[in-house]
From TrEMBL, chain A:
This is IMS import disulfide relay-system CHCH-CHCH-like Cx9C domain-containing protein. One of its GO terms (cellular component) is mitochondrion. GO terms for biological process: mitochondrial respiratory chain complex I assembly. It comes from the Eukaryota.
From TrEMBL, chain B:
This is S-adenosyl-L-methionine-dependent methyltransferase. The keyword Heme does not apply. GO terms for biological process: methylation; mitochondrial respiratory chain complex I assembly. CDD domains: AdoMet_MTases. The keyword Methyltransferase applies. It comes from Lentinula raphanica. It comes from the Eukaryota. GO terms for molecular function: methyltransferase activity.
């Protein structure tokens, strides 16, 4: 049971899902509110600044997680919740 | 007043003659389709992809993933059973069209029918569960739901039921016509399909994300049958004594990601012809954020709406009750009210 759960969370898309909803929830919310404020007239890159912050947080989160994994593989179960 | 030179007039006439010829060609042939390799009714869904998705879903983790997401089909099957129990008739055989793993067949008991024939285009889903899980005799036929009359004789069936399968059929008027053909006179059709506003939250979140991130949209969620059209479709197929009603089921998910995982495990991933096969990670992350802000619940979860259209129709028979002639009423409504 434990091994399957870990195997699933190491999938790249699963990692993205975890970070988009937990680690970077704050930036996601700011971006979502920006779209919410303009959703009757959405154009390309209308919330670019907000998304850039969100995207940066996501990339950062993935990178940090990966480096911890490489340095301390014994913590993988904590890291890959 | 402008005088048009005769040469340009001539050219204009030539052009008109040409367009007319094209119009005549397209109206006499089968209805046009977006894709060149298909003929006949408008093709919206890629049936081969859909079959593959359902097989994959049913085989994943030995069927356990698929069983985890049975909640939707089991719920709708339960609601179909409520309607079936209202019909005071005992059947010898019922056809479960697009049965999946037999969610509806499992609820049937020997008081309703002796035997049930499950028909599905996905072999994996059809054979997922063993016979011991069913209370009635089951027969499984692996066949395309779109070509029902290839496996059933006309005028042969007492009842055909369908639980959440018809929303992947390209030619809905055609399949309803085939169902009516396959039924005996006074035979029953009872079906449920997704339609109307199903998954509108996911549709809008993905569209907004795609517009903002990529500057355009593509079909991510199937076009749905309008609930108001269903009774017309049933009438057109030749059913009588119609009953159509709509149930809305709202499911709360932790986030858009779990919703998409569950849809995939149900075998309900996108199978629209001409869809884009990949989705950018940025677009997905953006959609997840938009979904939550635009539609999210107070408690941090997100809702997904499923609108289920229930339809009941009977094949006409002389023995059925019919409305009286107009003007034949003897009692004045004024005296009653």
């Amino acid at each position: 049971m434990f091994t399957t759960a870990t195997a699933q969370t190491t999938k790249p898309l699963k990692r993205l899902a975890v970070h988009a909803t937990t680690t970077c929830a704050e930036q996601a919310s700011v971006y979502g509110k920006c779209i919410l404020a303009t959703y009757t007239d959405v154009r390309k890159d209308i919330c670019k600044a907000e998304f850039d912050k969100f995207g940066r947080c996501l990339r950062e989160a993935v990178r940090v997680q990966l480096s911890i994994l490489i340095l301390f593989p014994q913590y993988s179960s904590i890291c890959l919740r | 007043m402008n005088i048009i030179p005769s040469r340009s007039l001539h050219r204009f006439r030539l052009f008109r003659a040409q367009t007319r010829a094209y119009a005549a060609i397209s109206s006499s042939g089968p209805s046009p389709s977006l894709t060149t390799h298909t003929l006949g009714p408008f093709q919206v869904f890629d049936r081969e992809t859909k079959r593959h998705q359902k097989d994959q879903a049913a085989y994943k983790n030995g069927g356990d993933s698929s069983r985890t997401v049975d909640y939707m089909r089991d719920e709708v099957a339960d609601r179909i059973m409520e309607r079936l129990e209202d019909i005071k008739r005992k059947f010898n055989t019922i056809i479960d069209l697009g049965s999946g793993s037999g969610h509806l067949t499992k609820l049937l008991d020997p008081n309703t029918t002796q035997k049930c024939i499950m028909i599905d285009s996905s072999r994996g889903a059809l054979h997922r569960d063993p016979n011991s899980e069913f209370d009635v005799d089951v027969e499984r036929i692996h066949a395309d739901e779109e070509n029902l009359l290839q496996v059933l004789e006309p005028n042969s069936q007492e009842a055909i039921v369908s639980c959440l399968s018809l929303h992947w059929v390209n030619d809905l008027p055609g399949i309803l016509g085939q169902i009516k053909e396959a039924l005996q006179p006074d035979g029953l059709f009872l079906g449920a399909m997704f339609g109307g506003d199903t998954l509108f939250e996911l549709r809008t979140a993905l569209q907004l994300a795609e517009v903002d991130r990529e500057g355009g949209i593509s079909p991510r969620v199937s076009p749905m049958t309008d609930t108001r059209d269903v009774s017309n479709l049933l009438g057109r197929a030749g059913f009588t004594l119609l009953t159509v009603d709509i149930d809305e089921i709202k499911v709360a998910y932790p986030s858009m990601w779990e919703l998409m995982d569950d849809l995939r495990d149900m075998g309900e991933s996108n199978a629209v012809i001409g869809r884009r096969h990949m989705i950018h990670r940025d677009t997905l992350a953006a959609a997840s954020a938009i979904y939550k802000e635009l539609h999210g619940n107070q408690d941090g979860t997100i809702p997904a709406t499923f609108q289920v259209i229930f339809m009941i129709g009977w094949k006409p028979a002389p023995t059925q009750p019919k409305p009286l002639q107009k003007g034949s009423g003897k009692t004045n409504l004024k005296d009653v009210l």
